[in-house]
Each structure stands twice: as structure tokens, then as C-alpha cells.
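Data deposition worksheet. Section B asks for the primary sequence of the deposited chain exactly as it was used as input, without tags or linkers unless they were present during the calculation. Section C holds the resulting structure in C-alpha cell form. Section D is free text for depositor observations; keep each observation to a single sentence. Incomplete worksheets are returned to the depositor.
Section A, Depositor: J.P.
Section B:
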Amino acid sequence: MRNHCGAKRPACGARTEEKKERMELLIQRIKDNLNEELIRITVSNPRKAEEIKKYSLRPVLVKETLVFQMESYTKTQVFHENLDKDGVVRKMKEILPGYKQVQIQGASGDLTALINKKGKAAVRIAGRNQGGQKLPDKERLRHNRQKKYILQEGIPVPFLQDLGVMTAEGKIIQSKYDKFRQINRFLEFIEDVLPHLREDRQITILDFGCGKSYLTFAVYYYLKELRGRNIRIIGLDLKKDVIKTCSRLARQYGYDALHFYEGSIEEFEGVEKVDMVITLHACDTATDYALYKAVRWKADVILSVPCCQHELNRQLSADKLRPVSRYGILKERFAAMATDALRADLLEAVGYETQILEFIDMEHTPKNLLIRGIKRGGGSEKKWREAEDFCEAFGLRPSLKALLETERGQKI
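Section C:
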């Protein structure tokens, strides 16, 4: 058999062998780049409506051992897992046939592979010798070996010193290193949502249940001192002594646009417009009231880390759920997941694009999920019906749904 140019086409068996060889070559390319000089590997453009839209892989050090952190992106969530070199290779062999594009970014060059529907990979390699893109060796090594925090160790930050996280020389106190990581992780979320916050006027940020205000001070310092944004932040908590201490520190640092007040989430009415609502570890239905207030204020951004989801645990009732509900710990975990899933869907129903993201590693706290909402407008009747159906199936009456029903029919 000949093609249109008159040349012989390879036989079917030969074509299959060639396809296999090209895929094996791509796997070998990936394997060759699994070292500390790797910048990132991205697998994207799923061939079908896959649940996972994209995979992203980068090297990290865990207890001085080089592993590769794989992030799996669905439409609304990001999942993380750490793999060794052999684990990455096995994973790539499993997923590559279902995706159209692979990109490898290395210190010396980029590789892009396009995979057709027959599983054949066409590879293009681009060097980094021109255009100043190549990282210097030491800089590249730091990129892989040391996490680049927004607040960096070695640079003294007054509020971190007074809160017992950092010494006067800028060294992180060993017992507070997890807190330091948590603060920086949260600032990464703040950095991500900056494009959704206005720059032509002062923006108001409200932190419900601010507690000792590690993160409240960090957000103010980052946005006001480091980024020069025109902001005011209000911290709210029920503990009078905590509010007194935080107010004193804010005055001490000259943070004149940072204010703390004693009060409950449900009753607070001190502002007419809020641009971003933060609620971190507000217990049980306090999170629901915070989300409801955010919707009422038409906040552009919501960042919420829920805590102690007891409400639905008390309500769960369904015969089909008995294999779960007869075990207390499983019932508790199911109720927590159901609570946050409903919160995310209900926010979607009233005009927010929501994601549930990992806040910090599970080993540090089980309360590690963050609900992020970005105001889009329009709402979704489908999401509201899905939430109603879910509640009916398991006999649930979540507070957020009841609160939002009062807003239904109005333009949110």
C-alpha cells in the first residue's frame, strides 16, 4: 500500500510498533528529567471529559528526600500527592494515553509533546540558551530545594516577633514553623485573588473569628506594606482580651487601617460594603452566618476554612447511609464533607464560582480545607436544585440554605 506521495506506508504491525516506541521515548524523556533541576511537568488537554482536567508535577524536598509533588486539577478542586521517581513513571504510563499534550520545563530547555488519538507522540524541544530564560545554577538549586515563601525567614517582621513566631533576627522559632508555613500558604491564596479586588478605591476586608490574628496581621502586612494596596481590614472576635491585645499591637505597628472589634458574626452590622470576607475556623454554623453575610454584602471574594461541622452530623438520617452512620468517626467525616460540599454548591447557586482547596498538609491539622468563592453573578438554579435534592435524600437542614432562602428571588 502506498500513500499519496507514492511512498510505501508502514505495515499495521510496524505502525503499532512505531507508536509504542514514540510513547516509550516520551516516558523516557520524562524519566530523564525527574531530578532536582526539573521545573515542572504539565499534562493537559484531556481527550475525553475526564474528571481530572490537568496534572502538574514539580520536585520538592520532604525531610531532605527528593520527591515529586503531583497536583491533580478537577473543575473545583486540587488534589496533591507525593511520588518517588518510579511512582511518577507508573503514573505517567497510566494517564498519558488520555491526554493530548505534555510539557516538560527543565533547566536547560523545554519539551512539548502532542499526543494524537492513536497514542502517537510528536515531540518538539526548545532550548533555554537564548532570551535569558535559563536560571543560574545556584538560583535553580534554591528553586527546588527551598520553598520560596512570601514572608521569608531572615527578614524580621514585627508582628511575627510579637506573636512568638519569629526572633528579633528573623529566625523562625522551631515550634512555630508550622504556623509560619500556614501563614505563607494563606498569603498565597490572597495573592491568587488579587486580580478580583478593585484597585480604583479602598477595599474593605472583614475577618470573622480572627482570634490571635496571625493571619489578619499577615494579610494587612502583605497587602498594605508589601503590595501598597489601599485597604482597610476589620477583625471580629468574641474574646474581649484577644481583641484588646490585637488592637494594641495594631496601634503599636502604626497599622491605622486595621481595626478589631468584639462581637458575633450573626449580629455584626458595622459596614455596608465588604469586598473580601475571611472566615478561618469559625465553629460550626458560625461559618454559615459568615458566608451568608458575605453574600448579602456582595463580596467579590470569600475565603473560608470551616471548623467543627456538627450541625449535619446531628441531622443525618437515611437507611441507605446506615453502613456509614453506625460508625461514629465515619459519620462525622461524611457530615463534614457533606457540609462543605453543600456550602460550595449553595454559593454557586447564588452567583459565586467556588473551589474547595487544600489549605495545609493533613499531618498538621484535619481542618485543612478552604472554600474559595469568586463573585461571578447570575447564580445557578441547577446547583440550588442539586443541593435541595441532596438535603432531601439525607434529611438535612443546613443553616446556610435556610439563610440564603431569604435572599432567593432578590438579585444577589
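Section D:
The first helix runs from residue 12 to 32.
The longest strand covers residues 38-46.
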